[in-house]
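Chain A, query sequence.
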Amino acid sequence: MSGTENRRLPAIASIRGVAVLFAALGVQQANAGLFDDEEARRQVSELTVKLNERLDTAARGQMELASQIQALRDETARLRGQVETLTYELDSVKKRQQDFYVDLDGRLRKIEAPAPTSVDAKTTDDGKPASEPPRKVASDPAAEAREYEAALNLFRANKLKEAAAAFEAFARAHPDSTLAPNAYYWLGNAHYALRDCRKTIEAQRVVVSKWPTHAKASDALLNVATCQQELGDSKSARATLEALLAKYPDTPAATAAKQRLKK
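Chain A, predicted structure.
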């Protein structure tokens, strides 16, 4: 073997060693790349599973929420129906109560109507008419009754503002009429229906102060106590109820006053 060939052998061995090294490195990189792909797939798979679980949970939550919303809608519809029914029944009760009091008012007016009396002209001893003090212009009971009935019909028709104005006009025009206490009483009721308790108290107190023996005086006093209570004046309301029991012990209003005082 020549010297030249002897020098080539170590070089060839070195080249082979480098080739083997590169081959080994290539295998490691391939394995590393393969490992990275498998890990990525595993992580993607795990994320997919978790995402699906969350989507399922969200879907179930939405279904439950939709079910609850529908249940609330059904309950709201049911309650609305009950409210409408109760409102109708309350309106019916109020209407029957108004009709009852109006009918009672008519019956009382028939009882309270004064009997007509004949007035004989007085004369002196010499046959001449005796002088008399000037009299007030005679009222027309029939006209008063028509005017009063017109106001009462407005109240019956639930035209409360018009009824209040009509009763007030009647009371001012006919202060000495036998229907005046009734007019003030219904004036107070009209104001109460209009949720004006202060005017209600004013009207009902006129009945109690000017006509204390009238059939409606006890009810008027009970109405005063009701408004005082609604205005937050419990002390005055209690005092009024106690006064009602003392003045009108044998009336239906007194029975109601006793029940209220027990509460």
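The first helix runs from residue 3 to 112. Residues 229 and 235 are 8 Å apart (CA to CA).
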